[in-house]
Write a structure and sequence with these properties.
The chain has 304 residues and is α/β, with parallel strands linked by helices. The chain has a single domain, classed as 3-Layer(aba) Sandwich (UDP-N-acetylmuramoyl-L-alanine:D-glutamate ligase), CATH 3.40.1190. Helix content is 36%, strand content 24%. It has eleven helices and 13 strands. The protein has a nine-stranded mixed beta sheet, sandwiched between helices. A four-stranded mixed beta sheet has the order 3-2-6-7. Helix 5 links the parallel strand 8 and strand 9. The model has no long low-confidence stretch (mean pLDDT 95).
Amino acid sequence: MIDLCVVGSLNTDLVVKTPRLPRVGESVPDGTFSTFPGGKGANQAVAAARLGARVTMVGRVGDDAFGRELIANLTRERIDAAHVRPLPGTASGTALIEVDADGRNTIVVASGANMRVAAADVDAAREAIAACRVLLLQLEIPDGAVLRAAEIAKAAGALVCLDPAPARPVPDALYALLDVIDPNEVEAQALTGIEVRAVAGAERAAEALRARGPRLAVVKMGDRGAFYAADGARGHVPAVPVHAVDTTAAGDVFAAALGVALGEGRAPAEAVGFAARAAALKVTRMGAQPGMPSRAEVDAVRTA
């Protein structure tokens, strides 16, 4: 069992399952409403825990009912939430999500307390971060906190992984600290300017990202699989064919599974394959965290 730390966001997902996504100005009837725990950071923490890692989460929530439930949910998942602190006078992060009949989604996020995570909060969790084998990062908290977490983990010899979502420029200082970067096709294009429509574009984007510092770059392409590039190893891993019900958090499950597999010492091709199987299972189920697979389920896909 590896020790893994996530520094990132926690949200409450307010989800409407709808026959189709509305056009601007249109109301679509007959939806069904659900509430799920989410946020890219918490999603990756839960996914990693279900895949067998011993996980610590670092972040902020509001001093409200949503925040209390988000912390309680981490505890139920056997995640150390001692460094997830409520912030008085601030709302917890919330995501408004629409999911259509094909599992496609639109998401609007009210970041709330997530954007109040500071370098000082990360420093307060220094001991836990330094003790981890793998650090998972995303971009739903301020750059200063992300960079500080990467500095602490890198100095301690941990594997530093960034899922650069939502897409925004990544500072050169952060690139220099990364071991792994795993954008999806839209994020890869935003970061590199290279259009990713097929494997050839994904390969060019991955090589461009590696040139900035990370040892391994993986471009996630949804139902077209993923392309990875590392020293002496590169290739395309096909997606596992499934019927998608809800693609929400599939990228988070992929990022967590990739970090777990690499932390266990797997080679890039094997780690990406493991991540692809985990993400495929997720999209067959509704809800970000409720739909995340166990280690046994992912391993069973490999032997099916």
